[in-house]
Amino acid sequence: MRGKIKVILCLLVIIFPLLGCWDRLEINDIAIVTGTSFDLLDDKQYKVAIQAPLPGEMGGAGSHGGGGGTSGGATYYLDAGIGHNVRQANEDLQKRMSRQLMFGHRRVSIIGEDLAKEGIRKILDVLTRTREARLRTQLFITEGNAIDILSSQPQLENLSAEAIREIGVAGYELTLRDFLLDYQKEGDDPLLPVLTLKENISPDPELVSNQVEISKMAIFKEDKLQFFTDEDQTSGIQWILGRKHGQSYTIEYDEGAHISFRIVEQTCDIKHSIKNGKPVYTFQIKLISNLLENETDLNLEETQVYDEINEKLKNKIVKEIEAIMDETLSKGIDTFGFGSLLHRKERKLWNDEFKESWREQLENIEYEININSKIVLTGLVTEGIGIGE
């Protein structure tokens, strides 16, 4: 009897691996979504668009480069669904899809301006609720409709989603995780990079098309978009977030004469102190730069000239930081987590004095900006070419 049981068990062990995959999902049965856009329509419905690559059209004979398609057509499929919420919009889209939509490889999520002004809490819910969610997905806001950005035709990449991801990594990378951390902190408001379309410059009209760029930031109060930054404010944000390293930076020394630098290293620490029962914040900024271009007739070997250039550099940085600080604080927006810092370091003071009226007190917050700047390399010449001794 025992022998028969052993034989049966052995047969079962052998048979089970031969049963095959009962829940298989073949690669040619799925559409891998690389980018998603979310827009709000006039009737308060959602328009949700997806971008899925077409592997058979990406590269090989007949390929003509990024986005512009091949002899067989475009390199990706773009379509949108409409619904009262995001899931309903996805189902509307799935009805005419021959393949199952898969969101596990989504690289970017783009939210339209009108939707961002209404609030993006509901979008955050659908982006994080399922097991397919990826917190490393980059999050962006757009001027106008998000679907216009997703449907752009990049010249150097096959997919607009990949081009957007690369631009984000280059200096404006803020992920879904980053946004959630700021959004859920007490005394902190999030921000996101803004995608806009701009025509490239080419003498060949056939090569002129709308390209995606990031030159602004979107400032939020809780989950609602408040305003887009200008050039100075955007630069000020980069200084505060420590995102200037590796970038070039230009100051105007005299009218029409500029000096450009490469920021080799840059950090910013925000400290606080309590004076007369009120918090005072200090930005401690350190930067090391190399001189890239000098349009002036200055001799950078002279100590006085070096100090004057460095002082103008620091003055411009202070101006840019003040530009974003003054506007956010005057509107009761805590973009840089002053309240969160106070909540962590001075818990009793926060709970007793500031928690309930923090936004109202932001307008009167005091802050200081301390900059330690060093120009370590001035290049192979100390004066401009042709200036002489």
From TrEMBL:
It is a lipid-anchor. Keywords: Germination, Lipoprotein, Membrane, Palmitate, Signal. Pfam families: Spore_GerAC, Spore_GerAC_N. One of its GO terms (biological process) is spore germination. It comes from the Bacteria. Transmembrane segments: none annotated. Coiled coil: none annotated. The keyword 4Fe-4S does not apply. One of its GO terms (cellular component) is membrane. It is found in: Membrane. Residues 216-379 form the Spore germination GerAC-like C-terminal domain. Residues 23-196 form the Spore germination protein N-terminal domain. Belongs to the GerABKC lipoprotein family. This is Spore germination protein GerKC.
